[in-house]
# Entry
Amino acid sequence: MSDSWSAGSRTSGDERPGDGEGALSSGDVSGAPGGGSGLRRVLVTVVLVLAVLAGGIVWLFRDELFHPFGDARACEGSDAELPGEIRAGGATIPAGASDVHYFTRNGTAEVTFVSGRVPDYLHRAGILPEGEPLFDERYGTKAVADDEIELPDGLCGSSLRGPVWIYHSTSPTGTSVDVMVERSPLVDDSFRFPARAVVTYHLASADVGAVEPVGRTLWS
# Structure
């Protein structure tokens, strides 16, 4: 009897409230040892992967996201899209021209490009007749001879390098056309090669692709 009483006493005395098979230990509450920190590491990894993927998508589609009409040539604020083959002032710009940008606003366009075939463009557009000297003052005038000449307001791209010559002409529709071209600083009767040109002209319906509605934003 004393043995039974001793066993019972030890059982009732050693057990504390909450002890036993049904009780949860501190390890059970937080999961397996280190479980909380492991979950945090997984979440951080997932977030980093998603951030990298999002950044890659933005980079791939940066031209479409941050340029009017999704056209990398279009400068911010342009309200009319120009077609893939730009017709500026009565003729298409030279094939293979590089660093092409344009700005359109209220029926007027400014286009800049770099090409070694600027004389051919001037002849095709009727700005300079075939056989005439490049710098005949009947067709143009000297401009500022600064080392760098800013592009017209709104037009994006690299600055012109002086000296510059400006042609004044009239398009087949009767509107004015101005063309600024980089002259060679070493040869008096030649352009730089290649030369940057800036053409300012009035848009005709055939020159335009899409038109940006007034007040429309990138995300609307």
About this structure: Residues 1-13, 20-31, 54-64, 213-220 have pLDDT under 50 and may be disordered. The CA atoms of residues 187 and 193 lie 11 Å apart.
